[in-house]
Write a structure and sequence with these properties.
This protein has a single domain, classed as Orthogonal Bundle (Peroxidase, domain 2), CATH 1.10.420. Helix content is 27%, strand content 5%. β4 and β5 form a beta hairpin. The longest helix is centred in the last third of the chain and has 16 residues. The structure holds protoporphyrin IX containing FE.
Length: 237
């Protein structure tokens, strides 16, 4: 019996291509179906510390800390259903429909509230109503091994696209011989152009940044006008 995972990478690449700002992802097909789920604790948990997360990615695929940060760009189009089950579909940034750099900006802002019923395992305070912050994302944004790389994505759409595309391509063929796979990248549509400019959400400014990179100041960004931003949940798919 195989697990029904054969089309998942293809579906993922097509799905991401709907998000303005996303890179056009490569997709290889033809891998054998998995025969077993991953053993428990091999996939990082949101309450794991940075040392453990980096070690897991290193031993799973020789991913560098910079590649781990790049992979987490995926959280710019992501939401949590299970961290706080009272608020399913709570996104990790204020623009979950856009593959933009807001995730890297907003994870660097001081956390002031919990969007739902309070602290859950793997959750820390977020800066916006309706936005959930994973403990792992908060720690990677502030750790000396990853904070400058994290900040380097702020307002750098070109780097966001190229670094994510490269790290994701590496992840999708882990353990595979690409010569035995079929490169179907040509059928992936070109995603729409970026549709947002990097900004602080309304009500927040540079003063709310928890500067963690010692070497480079946080970029200057405009603040969205209007009353404090409250993020709507992502509808169930
Ligand atoms: C440090 C490693 C990572 C941790 C601890 C982590 C943790 C999580 C957690 C806890 C959720 C919310 C699940 C829920 O409550 O529904 C989530 C969502 C998500 N993550 Fe990650 N993640 C990591 C890395 C990645 C990577 C490498 C990717 C892909 C390249 C990724 C893509 C996503 C996506 C797409 C979602 C949203 C799923 C949905 O909307 O249903 N994550 N992640």
């Amino acid at each position: 019996m195989g697990f029904p995972n054969k089309g998942i990478q293809f579906a993922g690449a097509i799905g991401v291509s709907n998000c303005p700002g996303a890179p056009r992802l490569d997709v290889f097909i033809g891998r054998k179906g998995a025969t077993q789920p991953a053993p428990d604790l091999t996939v990082p948990e949101p309450f794991d510390d940075v040392t453990k997360i980096l070690a897991r990615f290193e031993d799973a695929g020789r991913f560098t800390p910079a590649e781990v940060v790049a992979l987490l760009a995926s959280h710019t189009i992501a939401a949590a259903d299970h961290i706080d089950p009272t608020i399913p579909g709570t996104p990790f940034d204020s623009t979950p429909e856009l593959f933009d750099t807001q995730f890297f900006i907003e994870t660097q802002l001081r956390g002031t509230l919990f969007p739902g019923n309070g602290s859950n395992q793997g959750e820390v305070m977020s800066p916006l109503h309706g936005e959930l912050r994973l403990q792992s994302d908060a720690e990677l944004a502030r750790d000396i091994r990853t904070s400058c790389e994290w900040q380097s994505f702020v307002n750098n759409q070109a780097k966001l696209q190229s670094a994510f595309k490269a790290a994701f391509a590496k992840m999708t063929v882990l353990g595979q011989n690409t010569r035995e796979l079929i490169d179907c990248s040509d059928v992936v549509p070109t995603p729409p152009a970026p549709a947002s400019k990097a900004h602080f959400p309304a009500g927040l400014t540079h003063r709310d940044v928890e500067q963690a990179c010692f070497f480079v100041p946080f970029p200057t960004l405009p603040t969205d006008p209007g009353p404090a931003t409250s993020v709507a949940p992502v509808p169930p798919s």
